[in-house]
Amino acid sequence: MHVAVLANLKKNAPTWPGMAPDRWDDLDSEETIQGIMSALESQGHRATFLEGDQTLLDHLRRLRPDICFNICEGHFGDGREAQVPAILEMLRIPYTGSQVLTLALALDKPMTKRVLTYHGLPTPPFQVFERIGEPLDPDLQFPLFVKPSREGTGMGVSAESIVQNEQQLRTRLEHTFERYDEPALVERFIAGREVTVGLVGNLRSPVARRLPEDEDAPRILRGLHFFPPLEVDMTAYPEEEGGVYTSRMKTELAHDFHYHCPAPLSADQVEDLNWLAAAVFRVTGCLDVARVDFRLDADDNERPYILEVNPLPGLYPGYSDLCVEAEAGGWTYEELINRILDLAVERYELE
Ligand SMILES: Nc1ncnc2c1ncn2[C@@H]1O[C@H](COP(=O)(O)OP(=O)(O)OP(=O)(O)O)[C@@H](O)[C@H]1O
Ligand SMILES: [Mg+2]
Fold first, then answer.
1. Low-confidence ranges of the chain (pLDDT < 70)
2. pTM above 0.85?
3. In ligand 1, which atom is closest to the CA atom of 156?
4. 34 CA to centre of ligand 2 in angstroms
5. Which atom of ligand 1 approaches the CA of 321 most closely?
6. CA distance linking residue 110 with residue 182, whole number of Å
7. Which of 192, 195, 144 lies closest to 171 in space, CA to CA?
8. pLDDT of residue 250
9. Cβ–Cβ contacts within 10 Å for residue 30, how many?
């Protein structure tokens, strides 16, 4: 098949004076594109890279690929990760991974948390701030955690995200508004282990984007493949990181990543995390691949809390969480990439 690999490369991103230095931290590197293209070629596919910017429409019309391998994060706007899928829908070109609604939803952490809460899925209690002076909900107790509502790759996340009192809260809100110009998400700070679960596949019917109301109903996981969970080894990082998975750890220190994979968890804990990951995948409408991030509450028997779902998880060979997890599960990078493609090929009945 002719596969167009669609991504936003860091080196192709627009720049302007006064731009925040972390502005494009979530965009992809050439190594990732090269890795994906070689993986696809190793299975006999023809792969062409296209930058997911304004030139995409013309390039796609000319190239007419059979399918696109989409990992575009986009540049601008609150639905930026959904823009390329919207174009592909318009051109009726098949593509890998989640669709418009899911990608726009997952980019917005508060919106996603509202959906999770509706379904009774555990996510830290929260409040969204649009202005610095808004009163804090009296139900929220310090310490709290402040982060931008619509960023990834730890952008805006550092030890200073943990706030202990009103004054620290207001200072951090100011920083977040100034730097990211978007609402800030303030959550209960969950002290505890940091675990992420990667999965590939698609749920088989019946999937009505909701969970069975009956607690004893069988847990529907059919069609999904879970990789061993990864735990970030916070003890290996300087104290300045504050025990959280910071932007520094995901960028500057990314090549010196300290983790346990498989995470040292009991079989019951893994089963619970997998079920929660499947539930999140289901209610947010993910397709083909996702990674769900958790914290295990040290003050409540390691009760898992869902922090977010990543329907476009990083695919940097050998380093991104999902790639490490797949490897620990006995999959090569080539197998991971081609499975994602094959899942989409199956959905579109291209073969
Ligand atoms: N409520 C919380 N309590 C404790 N730590 C938190 C909380 N929310 C976020 N964190 C810490 O901040 C990190 C980044 O948060 P989150 O996963 O929401 O952001 P992200 O930048 O979108 O991540 P990704 O790189 O996975 O896209 C988490 O991995 C965790 O270490
Ligand atoms: Mg995360």
1. 205-210, 212-220
2. yes
3. 21
4. 24
5. 26
6. 12
7. 144
8. 86
9. 13
